[in-house]
Amino acid sequence: MGRAVTVATCALNQWALDFEGNLERIFRSIDIAKSKGARYRLGPELEICGYGCSDHFYESDTLLHSFQVLEKLLESPATQDIICDVGMPVMHRNVRYNCRVIFLNKKILLIRPKISLANSGNYRELRWFTPWSKARHVEEYFLPRIIQEVTGQETVPFGDAVLTTKDTCLGTEICEELWAPNSPHIEMGLDGVEIFINSSGSHHVLRKAHARVDLVNSATAKNGGIYILANQKGCDGDRLYYDGCAMISMNGETVAQGSQFSLDDVEVLVATLDLEDVRSYRAEISSRNLAASKVNPYPRVKVNFALSCPDDLAVPTCMPIQWRHHSPEEEISLGPACWLWDYLRRSKQAGFLLPLSGGIDSSATACIVYSMCHQVCLAVKNGNADVLADTRRIVNDGTYIPEDPREFCKRVLTTCYMASENSSQDTCNRAKLLAEQIGSYHISLNIDAAVKVVVKIFSVVTGRTPKFSVYGGSSRESLALQNVQARIRMVLAYLFAQLTLWARGMPGGLLVLGTANVDESLRGYLTKYDCSSADINPIGGISKTDLKSFIQYCIENFQLTALRSIMSAPPTAELEPLVDGQVAQTDEADMGMTYAELSIYGKLRKIGKAGPYSMFCKLIDIWKEIFTPREVASKVKHFFRMYSVNRHKMTTLTPSYHAESYSPEDNRFDLRPFLYNISWSWQFRCIDKQVN
């Protein structure tokens, strides 16, 4: 009867401008889809060139190489007898569009340009592309000669149209269009489109996955239909981790779920679904049918092909499943770990060096690397040949098989405790014990000699010797002496990263890991060019509150008992002299605010779009039970003074895994001045007026 259609979607770990690797992964996904009986295959957004090409989209080379890859796909026998839907940039009449190219048996059926471009947060699509603004309009697109020679076509349809096969009708959305208030699937569904296809380049943010799933399911809950979503996965060259979650939904319920975090470069979901379930679902929604009778029709591209087989009564169809979401602690354990793995293998380095202080932040970073080692061992155990090959290259051993996460961690993670006369024995012991439990190669050293030499140079030149405030020095002297210690640690971290393996008779170098969390960055509670300056930072987009929860998760799931004492100790930089052998300096006292307060300030500033006055107005209600309006005003003023004084530090912030919506990352996400009038005189006067 031609009722059961078999369709495939995928999550691919594409890499910006890696045309050869991207092509190979596309071919693998098509092979898997065909082997499972799929008649239609959907891939992620801009999968041919990679989503994160950024200003390389301006280059004609990117367009040329994308068409060269398309040529390989079109002429390959692997793409025969399956509708392939791939993403690439296309220039039409000298305008660059983000497009889907849909083809079958060496013929391009439709080039569908993106209608709603993502242009907020980390997304800058309007910088490189123009949205297609001609609704339900199709034009002729003149194909490049290299494509004409394969397809025998001179022109193909370009624009906002849908595909009609022998058994159903398919309509395209591209990523952001699902999130738009006037999503195309609404009108397409009313016009008889039964299968909606969405190729995405959606990155991970803590606690975001459910929003994407809910949107997909709601797309067909009101209107009926089958919704297929593909997504990029992995680190394609910058701060973002694309978190897969390919899925297939029907009539408001999930029927197939892909993984959110994994080391598999290619993941394909295949589902067989009954079109009659869509038709019967729609038949009883009278409001939908009334609207459908008046809809403005889409141009249809007729395709002499069916997604079903004539004799399909015995074909089993997929049933609804319950989506399993990760907890935030699991997301922190898995997302940054997968991002680190991609960065490590693609940068061709031999491992990581982590300055391990014995505090929560550096310990959380160590745990993320340990989680990465768990993921690698699990992937190899499950037969992932790509991960095994990458592992052997990283450790420079062609016969190596990673089986024990602790043993593998010793090969790829070097931890270094850099003591000074201001360090306590407690933090030294905590760092050593944690290193033993995760298995890292651990180094302990003392920086006092280097610090004294640097300070001596200053004293010789100026004739003055700075002192800590506890010894009678000024706050300026004390801060400068703290910064010298922090910056020497950064210099030593890079020295040991470059030469530790050399000293051990091993090839390669190490990537330095940073350990500043999102709250410290927002407040500027870090020394510019200290150990927060590194190659990459897996926790730079994660709050202190979430990191504490993650530490507890590691205690329970990895049995890292060393973390208990780290959790109970107050956070401290250990840059000021000890008092009676004990740490007297704490982070929250230094900052003049708690980490919990910092998270609230950060969310109001970025997500709530609040300046000083608006933040004060919101907080006098939020904190009405614990602070007076005058106390709230004082806190808000202190935050904005410190934030604006230290904003310049964000311009040199280590590239960090993006995980939080209030990240102050200056490169792309949080665009602000770095030279402020720190008096905020007008804004603070408005606050004072309300306080009075």
Automatic annotation (TrEMBL):
Pathway: Cofactor biosynthesis; NAD(+) biosynthesis; NAD(+) from deamido-NAD(+) (L-Gln route): step 1/1. It holds the Pfam family CN_hydrolase. Residues 5-275 form the CN hydrolase domain. PROSITE patterns: CN_HYDROLASE (PS50263). The keyword Ligase applies. Gene3D superfamilies: Carbon-nitrogen hydrolase (3.60.110.10), HUPs (3.40.50.620). Its EC number is 6.3.5.1. GO terms for biological process: 'de novo' NAD+ biosynthetic process from L-tryptophan. It comes from the Eukaryota. Keywords: ATP-binding, Ligase, NAD, Nucleotide-binding. GO terms for molecular function: ATP binding; glutaminase activity; NAD+ synthase (glutamine-hydrolyzing) activity. InterPro entries: C-N_Hydrolase, C-N_Hydrolase_sf, Gln-dep_NAD_synthase, NAD/GMP_synthase, NAD_synthase, Rossmann-like_a/b/a_fold. GO terms for cellular component: cytosol. The keyword ATP-binding applies. Homohexamer. In the C-terminal section; belongs to the NAD synthetase family. This is Glutamine-dependent NAD(+) synthetase. It comes from Melospiza melodia (Song sparrow). The lineage of its organism: Eukaryota, Metazoa, Chordata, Craniata, Vertebrata.
